[in-house]
């Protein structure tokens, strides 16, 4: 497939995806709860800040949770439905192997319960998740941006909806660009959003295939040559027991793991990208230009990330009678 052909494919998918989300987005508003729940932003902000202080891994997990919610059937809190409360297997059951962390569900539940005291039955779980993700990015040092509100929560959540809607680490950058285009995002927005990997961690199982190639006779000496050699050896040793202990994890941004900054992009040309999908963004010319730009210019990254997050928050949103306001985020 030639470069031009690909661009056409992206453009077509983009045009196909854009109108519905744009129409729904225009029905969201930052002042949606002005009369019904005027303190909504402050209430969420307070809960989120306390949770993040107590459990510093909350922020990255919640950012990822928001992404997964929005890419599977729109930002409708369908990812929050618990397998324990749902009649059939909900999205989260398929997500289990993607290891969405408990603290990120907990922070939404806490904010929601504070809101149910202040303004019962008013604020959707989807809006709570969007606000929490925004606040947590800010707490880690990232950009602040307005969150349009008025999303309704889904009436369904089905594990079978997940397949094909989330990127995988084994995808080429080109395949990721096509997937993101289908959701209405340009390659530039893909790269900006992937900058979320400036925080949080990944389990060894997600990148072990880059570490133990077998070419070294099983002694672990053969690693993906696009990895920085010292980094690769450190990973080989940190992850050595990952099959026995699948919880072993490594920071996505090895240089400044807890800070939302542009260092993730500076890592990629140096072979310090952790996931194959991170490294791929540097190998592919269409995405490389944006990696380069963001690595050199934090302002450019923050501006684009803020815009792309607002767009992410509008993907497939349900308004009015298309959805409901759940009383409990983990129960349909
Ligand atoms: C572009 C394609 C992407 C791929 C292939 C991908 C894949 C992954 C994988 C495999 C992990 C590790 C999960 C684990 O082991 O627990 C991860 C972590 C993470 N991802 Fe992505 N992701 C992508 C894009 C995004 C986007 C667009 C966002 C948000 C805007 C995001 C936010 C995160 C965060 C914050 C973490 C760390 C989670 C934590 O520390 O709990 N990712 N991603
Ligand atoms: C990527 O991994 C998924 C699940 O781990 C698998 O179903 C899929 O076939 C893989 N895709 C490629 C292109 O290898
Ligand atoms: C960095 O990006 C911002 C926003 O796009 C731009 O205004 C500024 O000129 C850039 N700075 C440099 C040094 O290129
Ligand atoms: C698709 C997949 O990888 N499924 C795995 C999810 O995790 C459970 C428990 O660890 C495994 O048994 C599945 O094979």
Automatic annotation (TrEMBL):
Compartment(s): Secreted
Domain of life: Eukaryota
Name of the protein described by the UniProt record: Peroxidase
Main location: secreted
Lineage, broadest ranks: Eukaryota, Viridiplantae, Streptophyta, Embryophyta, Tracheophyta
Positions of Ca(2+) 2 binding: 198, 253, 256, 261
Cofactor dependence: heme b; Ca(2+)
Cofactor binding: number and manner: Binds 1 heme b (iron(II)-protoporphyrin IX) group per subunit. Binds 2 calcium ions per subunit.
InterPro entries xrefs: Haem_peroxidase (IPR002016), Haem_peroxidase_sf (IPR010255), Peroxidase_pln (IPR000823), Peroxidases_AS (IPR019794), Peroxidases_heam-ligand_BS (IPR019793), Secretory_peroxidase (IPR033905)
SUPFAM superfamilies xrefs: Heme-dependent peroxidases (SSF48113)
Transmembrane segments: none
Described function: Removal of H(2)O(2), oxidation of toxic reductants, biosynthesis and degradation of lignin, suberization, auxin catabolism, response to environmental stresses such as wounding, pathogen attack and oxidative stress. These functions might be dependent on each isozyme/isoform in each plant tissue.
Alphabetical keyword list: Calcium, Disulfide bond, Heme, Hydrogen peroxide, Iron, Metal-binding, Oxidoreductase, Peroxidase, Pyrrolidone carboxylic acid, Secreted, Signal
Annotated positions binding Ca(2+) 1: 69, 72, 74, 76, 78, 91
E.C. code: 1.11.1.7
